[in-house]
Protein 1
Amino acid sequence: MIEEQTEDFKRRNIVHSDLGFLCLECGTRLGHYHSIRNHVVERHIDTGASFRCPNCHHISNTKRKIRSHISKAHPQLRITDVELLRDG
Ligand SMILES: [Zn+2]
Ligand SMILES: [Zn+2]
């Protein structure tokens, strides 16, 4: 299911040019094809995995949302701490 979503997203939003691969959704430019899947899955696909805020009980299904929660609610917290909390 995630693979299908990822492929679909790539078809619609990733453009290949001499400069590399451009994500139309967020404007990120990627130099290598193998970076695309990681980028798309991490930034644009809801994987159903849950990410928990290390500083409160806030739970989100995307890393992006939990990052934005942390930057607003706990600006003193290091975002990288969130990487450790993935449980799916
Ligand atoms: Zn993107
Ligand atoms: Zn929090």
Note: Residues 50-85 form one domain.
Protein 2
Amino acid sequence: MCIRDSIKAVAEAALRRLRTDVIDLFYQHRVDPDVPIEDVAGAVKELIQAGKVKHFGLSEAAASTIRRAHAIQPVAAVQSEYSLWTRDPEPEVLPALEELGIGFVPFSPLGAGFLTGKIDTTTTFHSTDFRNISPRFEPEARQANQPVVDCLCQIAEQKQATPAQIALAWLLAQKPWIVPIPGTTKLHRLVENIGAADVVLTADDLRQIESIVSEIEVQGARCLLYTSPRGSTSDASWGDHSCFACAPDGNRADTREKDRQPDAETVELLNSMRPSSQRHK
Ligand SMILES: NC(=O)c1ccc[n+]([C@@H]2O[C@H](COP(=O)([O-])OP(=O)(O)OC[C@H]3O[C@@H](n4cnc5c(N)ncnc54)[C@H](OP(=O)(O)O)[C@@H]3O)[C@@H](O)[C@H]2O)c1
């Protein structure tokens, strides 16, 4: 199947699963180093022209890739890891997004939970949890990176907030076009995380956070190598992050999601926000 047909098949499968006739934001998730980004942008452009997609997004793309894609089909949003312990997008990607008027969606904004202060060297994870194989979650790295959490706890106490809220408020304070997407399976944490939008960090607070965190050298690579469907690999620490998250049939080889089911209260809340035809049982 050519790349154009493959992307269209992914879109059709997503439309079916979402039980909708248009996808608001269709991300390439992530960049495939074996496929010219112009071909990807061209395929998404056709989907937009056909009314099946409204906006085009990229995930973990390098600034140069974003520019090339944007020249073919304007990119609406880029989703990459960004938080107080993962500052990689700052030198190149964020300036490019600002210049081009593209929104930024930080994933893992709570450092996959570490920045909330609820994880220490003794915390264990489910056997399928990626943190078991993430260098950044090795016990030595957790211990070495604890000062980042201590900083968040210190500011949280001053602001009568929680460390998770400070981690999110810091992201929100960076640029008005930055929209973090924290993940949780618990309703009370969802409410807590939404509360971050009401936490105001002053210029002095931001300077204090920066002066503490800039002294800390974060230990442990943030993730492992990714392999594209055609076998090329790329490293999270430079440029594009490779691979499509969805196979053309829409099946994701991602046990992590299956093991992180939301609690009953959260399912009920989410269902109440959906049209009845889209509610989960
Ligand atoms: N584009 C990509 O390649 C990519 C990669 C990874 C993730 N993502 C997306 O990014 C989003 C979030 O990322 P993420 O889930 O990896 O990381 P995250 O939001 O940084 O952290 C989520 C973890 O923190 C815990 N947590 C959440 N709120 C908390 C709070 N207030 N206090 C204490 N613990 C809290 C959650 O546990 P509980 O569930 O127990 O609350 C979970 O273990 C998801 O939508 C995900 O799909 C995208």
Note: Residues 3-274 form a domain with the TIM Barrel fold (CATH 3.20.20.100).
